[in-house]
Amino acid sequence: SVNTDLKLKCVSWQLSENQKDHESEGLSSKHLVVRRGRPFKITLFFKDEPFSPLMDSLVFSAQLGELYVQFPLTFSRHVSAFKWGGQILSENSWSQSLRVLIFTPPNAPLGLYNLQLHIKSQAQQHSYALGNLILLFNPWCSTDEVHLSHADQREEYVKNDSGILFMGTPDNLLPRTWEFGQYEEGILETCLKILDMSPQHSKNSQKDNLCRSNAVYLSRVVCAMVNDRGVLKGNWSGDFSRGVSPSQWTGSADILKCWERSQCRPVLYGQCWVFAAVMCTVMRALGIPSRVVTNFNSAHDTNANLIIEEFYSETGEKLQLSKESIWNYHVWLECWMSRPDIGSEFSGWQVLDPTPQEKSGGIFCCGPCPVKAIREKRVDLFYDVPFVYAEVNASVYTAIVKNNQVVHQSLDANRVGSLVCTKGVNSYLAQDLTAYYKNPHKTPRRNSSLHGKTEIIFVQLPVAGQSISFSVTVVNNCGTSRRLKEHINAQMKEYSHNLLETFWEASNMIKLGPYEGKCATFI
Ligand SMILES: *[C@@H]1O[C@H](CO)[C@@H](O)[C@H](O)[C@H]1NC(C)=O
Ligand SMILES: *[C@@H]1O[C@H](CO)[C@@H](O)[C@H](O)[C@H]1NC(C)=O
Ligand SMILES: *[C@@H]1O[C@H](CO)[C@@H](O)[C@H](O)[C@H]1NC(C)=O
Ligand SMILES: *[C@@H]1O[C@H](CO)[C@@H](O)[C@H](O)[C@H]1NC(C)=O
């Protein structure tokens, strides 16, 4: 059989073996999905005659958009971990096949690659399109920048497709289950489409493809694409008649499918937990470890002075004198990655906040902001450290105003960021992350002592259409009788809004003898 050319009959992608080995089972029914930095196996079957090492040379090429890499298939062991490579594992002359190992670098750009085989034998050359494969980030690989060393964390933050989002108040967490849905049909392909629809890709697709090797870059692209110009439109008006109310969504897959079906028009509507949960799906699908995090009493500091100002009337009614607000809770995402751009000490969990609030570099995007930089108040570091720092650690300045004059003022450093939490690993309970964001300066809930003439005691009660009861105890600490006036004022607060007008109030005169205490109960 001299003088004939080697021809390819077919290729076996060995889907189930590779996907099991790459922790990528269920992510796509159309394509082989593998993680970078770990070799995968394919088998090449030839026509008419077997492969002859002396006569035939085999070269692969992998193509991602305009990016193109070529590498030969050889018998030698692959040694250069940061290069693409092909190694022959075994030959079978009876079936005229070759078992082949293909190596990808742990810093290769993520995406849908086109794999080709070029056969050069004697005077002839044939090229064959083998098909497409999807290359993802690899938290299992120690040289990948998203490497996560604990197996149980990889199960939770990369592979788990359901989770819990926390709402309510710090003392009364309201858990809400969420289906991330990264294994639903077509979701991974939709996630890749989100990248292709980004302004960065439209502007320069070659540069964008090249940058997709980097988790910092990729997470910024996804963060900006999840909100208004991309997947989901935010609306806090309370009128959701033109779309779906944010609280009706129970998972990300419906939203992503809806976006895909509508020719990539933003889906109506999202609020913070929806934005964060959808971004969590995209990041987990792409292989970047992610978790949804709730910050209770999240400050929105519009003038960046790290102080939220609140003004009250003498009877305790909050006055609308300040545009700054404290959300009952705010939900964002943490993604796990190294930070070669700012220093390896800031590698680890990074805040990414896809809710459109403030522009960062001209687009609605926030992060990646290292959690460690927040704790160390490194407001000089990229990205958006001052904004996230204020969300968890602004102080609340409270002033009581009478006839346009401040009659009492106080500063509360504990209210904002009172709890930061996420779903625990392999658990349905909340894990407290507060100490990663702030110094543990929590003082126990103190009894308010009446030094001045007037003082506000702020109590937050959960909603949910139930009746509320509470009691207030007043103790006279001095040896003389005292008379005081007690005002109770109740105002409604939706999670992202300022207080609405007073819906209930009461007042009492209290007379206390020396060292006497009195308790009043309200139902
Ligand atoms: C929210 O929806 C309402 C009702 O459809 C609409 O009037 C309002 O402009 C929307 N707000 C934003 C910010 O899109
Ligand atoms: C996801 O997390 C839940 C709760 O911890 C657990 O019961 C479930 O088995 C996990 N699912 C996967 C696919 O790991
Ligand atoms: C947060 O605020 C408190 C009180 O103002 C302060 O002690 C602390 O150093 C601040 N920073 C962090 C990261 O906790
Ligand atoms: C607050 O007052 C209550 C009731 O008088 C008392 O039992 C408690 O010890 C006080 N707590 C503090 C921190 O002073």
From TrEMBL:
Pfam families to which the protein is assigned, alphabetical: Transglut_core, Transglut_N
InterPro entries assigned: Ig-like_fold (IPR013783), Ig_E-set (IPR014756), Papain-like_cys_pep_sf (IPR038765), Transglutaminase (IPR050779), Transglutaminase-like (IPR002931), Transglutaminase-like_sf (IPR036985), Transglutaminase_animal (IPR023608), Transglutaminase_AS (IPR013808)
Source domain of life: Eukaryota
GO molecular function: metal ion binding; protein-glutamine gamma-glutamyltransferase activity
Keyword vocabulary terms for this entry: Acyltransferase, Calcium, Metal-binding, Transferase
EC number(s) stated in the UniProt entry for this protein: 2.3.2.13
SUPFAM superfamilies xref list: Cysteine proteinases, E set domains, Transglutaminase, two C-terminal domains
GO biological process: nervous system development
Active site: residue positions: 272, 330, 353
GO cellular component: mitochondrion
SMART domains recorded: TGc
Annotated ranges, domain Transglutaminase-like: 264-356
Cofactor(s), by name: Ca(2+)
Family: Belongs to the transglutaminase superfamily. Transglutaminase family.
PANTHER family cross-referenced by the UniProt entry: PROTEIN-GLUTAMINE GAMMA-GLUTAMYLTRANSFERASE, TRANSGLUTAMINASE 5,-LIKE
Protein name (record): protein-glutamine gamma-glutamyltransferase
Species of origin: Scleropages formosus (Asian bonytongue)
